[in-house]
Amino acid sequence: MLNREDNALLCEVGPGTPMGRMMRRYWHPVCTSAQLAGADAPPLRVKLLGENYVAFRDSHGDVGVLEELCMHRGASLALGRVEDGGLRCLYHGWKFDVRGAVLETPNQSDPKYRARMKAPAFPVREEGGLVWAYVGPKELQPEFSRYAFMEAEPAHRVVLRVNVACNYLQLVEGGEDSSHVGVLHTNMARPGWKENDFLPNADVVNPAALASNDLDPALKMEETAFGFQYVALRKIDKVGVKNARVVPFIVPYGRVIPAPAFLFTVLEVPEDDTHTSTYIIVHGHAPVSEDKIVELLGLDDTRYYDRKTCAFTASWADAFGQSRERMKDSWTGLRGVEVEDAAIALSQGPLYDRSKEHLVPADQAVMRVRRVLLDSVRRVMDDKPPIGVGVDLRGVGACDAQLEDGASWQDLVPTHREVAAA
Ligand code: FES
Ligand SMILES: [Fe+2]
Questions:
Q1: Whether residue 421 has pLDDT greater than 70
Q2: What does the mean pLDDT of the chain come to?
Q3: Percent of the chain scoring above 70 in pLDDT
């Protein structure tokens, strides 16, 4: 349980809030590269931490992120024309390049005005199929943190974005909570549940496939340079052989989930206090198809997910597409892993009041997420760098494997020990 003040401290991300200040110290994804496909692609309105920006790709293929409203008199640049190396405002034709230089002011031909102005533009990187921006204080810009998925061959990687209309922390807490996997995702985690028989899910791409029928895993955790890692230990047989599922929490909103042959990196990026962009990046050492991932996640139902706008639109209007008929064979009557996760987070409301919850030891990872986020906020309040900022994240992974007797779970992802502050 959290008191109302701490709940607000954790959930509110707008400018000037303590969490908003802490989050602004990191680089964030603002859209996928595919959303700005091709030179002079249409500009994209993007929202991050309660503020609006426009992202665009110029004629040379470079991406810029500017404040959304034109520096002249505030028309939205998302309506603008992208042409000849810049983004042009429709209202009076001022044209800006990706770094914010004012290239033309057709309604004011004297160049001295444009020469002394610069549009609010932000540092941008394009890596791993995502466009990243840094919108924090200039003098505190950190190293760009690289993830393992950025090293994967493009054919071995799928990048998806799902826009969900609820606070980021509901999605983060769901993602870090190991004990829900064997319950909410019953059909994928434990096929055979109807017959009370455990059959492992043979799909090597499925992140909800579990090696055990144990619904009450023992949790252990450990602090790391990027946040923390924890293990869920599930009994496999009566002699005490255990399965270990190791998952990291990357401050401020990242995790990596193991599938048998791939890793799912998931970033819950707050657009504002009640909207989140979930970026799901799947990578491994073999080709992986986007259609397959979309289907696995349940996002192939075009009533609820639009691959172009990335909007997830399932709602109470039709109970998130839940089918009571299907529930005879499906635990949830919902479709796919992401639909189950997003529907549960949405069902908690746009911003869940945690003063009414009842936590038990199975929720330890959720408690730890809150603690590490509050620690990071307090560090920024004390003029210290937030947790894990600038860290090279290429060694951050996840694992689901049998733990040999006497072996240490931390050795399952040995690179976590090597990840250190840059
Ligand atoms: S408002 Fe954009 S050019 Fe005038
Ligand atoms: Fe889940």
A1: no
A2: 95
A3: 99
Secondary structure (3-state) at 406: coil
Tell me how far the alpha carbon of residue 92 lies from the centroid of ligand 1, in angstroms.
5
Confidence of residue 238 (pLDDT cuts 50, 70, 90): low
384 CB under 6 A from ligand 1?
no
Instruction: Report which ligand 1 atom has the smallest distance to the Cα of 75.
Output: 1
81 lines ligand 1 (CB under 6 A): no
Q: Is 102 in the pocket of ligand 1 (CB under 6 A)?
A: no
**What are the strands, taking DSSP E only, across 134-188?**
157-164
Residue 70 CB less than 6 A away from ligand 1: yes
Whose Cα sits closest to atom 3 in ligand 1? 92
Q: How confident is the model at residue 405 (pLDDT cuts 50, 70, 90)?
A: confident
Q: Looking at the CA of 334, which ligand is closest?
A: 2
Per-residue confidence (pLDDT) for residue 417, from 0 to 100: 87
Instruction: Report the pLDDT value the prediction gives residue 404, as an integer from 0 to 100.
Output: 86
pLDDT of res. 244: 95
Tell whether ligand 1 has an atom less than 6 A from the beta carbon of residue 89: yes
Nearest CA among 325, 331, 323, 296 for reference residue 194: 331
Counting atoms of ligand 1 from 1, which one is nearest the CA of 105? 3
DSSP string, 46-105: EEETTEEEEEEE-TTS-EEEEESB-TTT--BGGGSEEETTEEE-TTT--EE-TT-BEEE-
Instruction: Check pocket membership of 144 for ligand 1, CB cut-off 6 A.
Output: no
Q: Cα(38) to centroid of ligand 1, in Å? A: 25
In this structure, whether the domain defined by 148-421 belongs to CATH 3.50.20 is answered with no
Torsion angles phi and psi, residue 282, rounded to 5: -105, 130
CA of 56 to the centre of ligand 1 (A): 17
Model pLDDT, residue 422: 45
* pLDDT mean over 176-195: 92
Which residues are found with C-beta within 5 Å of the ion, ligand 2? Answer: 341
Q: Where are the domains of the chain?
A: 32-140, 148-421
Nearest CA to ligand 1 atom 4: 92
* Model confidence pLDDT, tens digit, residues 58-108: 999 999 999 999 999 999 999 999 999 999 999 999 999 999 999 999 999
Range 190-210 average pLDDT: 88
DSSP 336-382: SHHHHHHHHHHHT-SS--GGG----GGGHHHHHHHHHHHHHHHHHHT
Query: What is the CATH architecture assignment of 32-140?
Result: 3-layer Sandwich (2.102)
